[in-house]
Amino acid sequence: MTQTPAHALGLGGLLRLRLLAVVGILALVLLARYGLGLELPLNELLIVLATWVVVTFATGMWLARQGEDVGPLPLTAAMALDAVLLTVVFALTGGPSNPFNFLYLVYIALASVVLPPRHAWALAALATGLFALLFVWNVPLGGMSHMGHEGHDMSLHLRGMWVAFALAAALILGVVSRVSTALSDRERELVVARAQSARSARLASLATLAAGAAHELATPLGTISIVAKELERDLGDSATNADAVADVKLIHEQVARCRAILEALRADAGDPAGEAREAVTPAALVARASDGLDREACVSVQGDASSALVRTFPRSVALALRNLIKNAIEATPADGVVTVTCTVRDRVLTLAVHDDGPGIPADVLERVGEPFYTTRPTGRGMGLGVFLARTVAERLGGTLRLDSTARGTTASLTIPAE
Q1: Which of 19, 154, 271, 275 is 20 to 30 A away from residue 82, measured at CA?
Q2: 342 vs 395, higher pLDDT
């Protein structure tokens, strides 16, 4: 699951906010002029508001061509332009004595939510500077000085308001930014937790399916084993029946192998519950994982394979590693080599399995690890290898990462080890 960037949602919303701001400012100007009788430079104000509307529609047309995900820089520039135009309106309507100077805080609060911290702080600094500019450049309401009747005291009060504004802007920006970041982090954690929960549920379903299959197949496998024993006894050891006896022994071996596979699926299924930690070398884990695989000899072990000693869950780690090695062997050409690089650093065991295959396309790599997703021909696998390996890694507190290029694919299994 991917998240929509906040800035991708902000520019369209800002355009609507602009129009509301222009309508609101126009209504206040008309009320102050004709309702309160204040002398205002209407022509200049109407020019500023018209410019604001034209810029809004031009930005909307540009946004329609670019799409929603335009990055944070255009949104920052648009909000900075709004702050400048708002400053011009304030300057024409009393400067620092205008009671609506708090509107700067609306843009600062919005910036702290939809912009990266660096852009938000830059916009807050710009708004603070523009507010300070109002003390130098302004048109007093009704032709009066913005110092009012109290002169120096009123000037001091207005400067104190500016200091309070700067502090409020910093406080709002800091608090809202931290809350927004915390919420974003929490949302990402929830996405990861949901994905892990879904994988666990799928794994539980697979374990139930494996247990049911083992239970249902136990009877026919037992019958096959009994019949094979009867055949072996009837055939005896006569030389004339040597081929038949060999076939019967092969049946015995394959039945035993089927039982072992079903028991492993039922007992393991990627769950280390009931398994104790053991001190093993990475080389022993690789040997256990690759035992009995086709082309086992093409597996090359490198790194801290035999020199390091780690305490981990060997059965579960070997199960995950076996799936990765098996996939690598199938992807590697006949003359290629599967390399398993073992690294132990800071009580963390990393087993990197690299094949000499052609790599995995990007669109396929995104789906690798989904249960029952496979690009192999029918009968060559169910697409559970990477899924089980990742589930085992996560249950042990580790990770599984896949990297693929045209020169092969590397599956890195990282497991905490004591």
Answers
A1: 154
A2: 342
Nearest Cα residue to 325 out of 410, 218, 214, 243: 410
Of 115, 113, 134, which Cα lies nearest the Cα of 176?
Answer: 113
Report the distance separating Cα 300 and Cα 298, nearest Å.
6
Mean pLDDT rounded to a whole number for the chain: 75
Q: Given a cut of 60, is residue 414 above it in pLDDT? A: yes
Strand boundaries in 258-388, DSSP class E: 278-280, 299-303, 310-312, 338-345, 348-354
**CA–CA distance, 99 with 165 (Å, rounded to integer):** 12
Bridge partners of 310, per DSSP, are 280
> Which fold would CATH assign to domain 278-416?
Heat Shock Protein 90 (3.30.565)
Taking the whole predicted model, whether its pTM rises above 0.90 is answered as no
3-state helix, strand, coil in the chain (%, to 5): 65, 10, 25
Q: Are 121 and 145 in contact (CB under 8 A)?
A: no
Domain boundaries, the chain: 6-146, 200-267, 278-416
Rounded CA-CA distance 269/315 in Å is 11
